[in-house]
Amino acid sequence: MAPAATPCSPCLLLASSAYPPPLRLFRGAVRPLLPRSRGGGVRLRIRCGAANEEAEARRGEQLKASVEEMAPGLDLVTLAACLVGLLTGVSVVLFNLSVHEIRDLFWDGIPLRGASWLREEPTGEIWQRVILVPVSGGIIVGGLNMLRSSIKTNSDGTVSNIKGVFRPFLKAVAASFTLGTGNSLGPEGPSVEIGSAIAKGFGNVFGWEGGKKLSLVAAGSAAGIASGFNAAVAGCFFAVESVLWPSSAASSSLSNSTPMVILSAVIASIVSEIGLGSDPAFTVPEYDFRSPTELPLYLLLGVFCGLVSITLSRCTALTMDAVESLQKATGLPRASSPALGGLIVGLLALIYPEVLYWGFENVDILLESRPFTSGLSASVLVQLIGVKILATSLCRAFGLVGGYYAPSLFIGAATGMAYGKFMRFTFTGSEALFHVPFLDVASPQAYGLVGMAATLAGVCKVPLTSVLLLFELTQDYRIVLPLLGAVGLSSWIASPQRFSTSSKAKLDFLEEKTSTIQEDEIVSSQSQQVTSADIFDSTADLCKLESSLCVYDARDSDMLENLNVAEAMKTKYISVSVKTSVVEALNLMFAEKQPFVMITFLPSFSKLFVPNKLG
């Protein structure tokens, strides 16, 4: 007797109306799962015969995954994380040494005491070098960018993997020439990308995906920051803030990755000390904390740093849009854009030489932490804030390669020093404007250190890393409380969710149209969708600002599994009432460049999407 057929259930069942709303995806295009029928609906493809086989295959894959997650597999990933830390430390040391060699080559005979020496030299004797060196760096970077963009890695073969190795290598070389010739960016972003590229290479070699690859990328990012700043603790927290928290869907991923991150950061930091020395990235002055009554002054400094951070982010976005429009309008080749950016930086450096990248010696000049250095006045410091923001934004917009960590620290130091000098002039001394007997203002260097952390947190959205970095460098517990207050306020002010104008406008429109409980639920759901879209847009803007903050994206490997409706749907649309004429609706569609309008039926607030036939 033949065995009875095992009942099976459909593997996939999708339903669609005659005119389904178009699906908009933020990242890339995804092919539809089901083909459309000629009538505008969706043909259902129900696979039944192979359901049991697929279920067995899935159970086999789950069993294999559970076996891989056991101790031997984790030990192998941990060992790989240690190797990632070692290779990252060596690579970052070589990267920094190459920057120094390029600087010595292009600026031969220049004293290594920061770019402020240019203020002491006659302009007629130095202007050619100050202008031509950044321009020459831009020319080299333009060629490297074109070479890097010409490398295609579409396939999964061995040749494609080999080509993929050259892309981060060429980017690191371009960053070396950008920084060695004095253009206004920083080395820490490329250091993080070097570590993440090495980690991704290990993941590709062993075929690891998901949590294992995430752990390796986090370890590489931690190693990049740890070796760049010689600060292992800050590197660990950076990996948690920039990689693990945004990407981890399960709490176990964070606990499993923590040992790998710590080991990688420690190994990279040791290698950095051997290759570059044990001194911190910049000379840290002794922190001066006078009285708890100063804390309101530090909180106010956090507010100013938050506003400065917003200015840098917005200026970068505007300059990138302006340069893109310029390239389209004039046909300016992308290969020549970095040279134009270097030319502008050189012209600015004739008046404000501190905008040139000169390691962290320029930060030492601002903090007055080196002997035999004269400090800058508060008015010059304020001018440097604006010029540095402009120079950094132009460098990024014109295609020069580097990070935003060092410029953020420079701008924060200038902001804090100017603020501290103004406060000492206002509240201390015989000629103080206001005599407050219980208020004893600390030195400007104290405010400069806090301003560095607050600005870094506002620009790069890494508040814990900023606090730990300055605490680790100063090794003074008294700085923690002012740091936490200023960094917290700066991060809150610079948070992109506070400036979600589209969300507010959408909610105002919905509140005017609705009054029932059911409509209130619609408002709540709509606000969540709009907020999610705004968060995604702000994340994309942050990635454009500092690419090292987006070294891992879970949606790249498992997009459909992690994608939700709020991210996939179109949130910017136009709506009309049922009483609106077709002509008015069409005119509105043409004016707003929308392929459809949403028709609202009051008071039930049901929705009907007009198909593309109206457009």
Helix content: 55-70%
Structural class: mainly alpha
Q: What's the overall average pLDDT, rounded?
A: 75
* Number of helices, counting only DSSP H or I runs of 4 residues or more: 21
**What is the string of SSEs from the N terminus onward?**
HHHHHHHHHHHHHHHHHHHHEHEE
Q: What overall form do the CA principal axes indicate?
A: globular
> Into which percentage range does the β-strand content fall?
under 5%
Strand elements, count? 3
Ends distance: 63 Å
User: Low-confidence segments, ≥5 residues, pLDDT <50?
Assistant: 1-51, 67-71, 499-536, 554-563, 603-615
In which order are the strands of the major sheet placed?
A: 1-2-3
Cα radius of gyration in angstroms: 28 Å
Q: What characterizes the major β-sheet?
A: 3 strands, mixed
Describe the structure concisely for a colleague.
The chain contains 21 helices and three strands. The protein has helices at residues 51-68, 71-106, 123-150, 158-180, 188-206, 211-229, 232-247, 251-276, 295-330, 337-351, 361-367, 378-397, 405-427, 444-460, 463-474, 480-493, 501-513, 517-545, 554-562, 565-568, 582-592, and strands at 575-577, 598-601, 606-609. The longest helix is centred in the N-terminal third of the chain and has 36 residues, at 71-106.
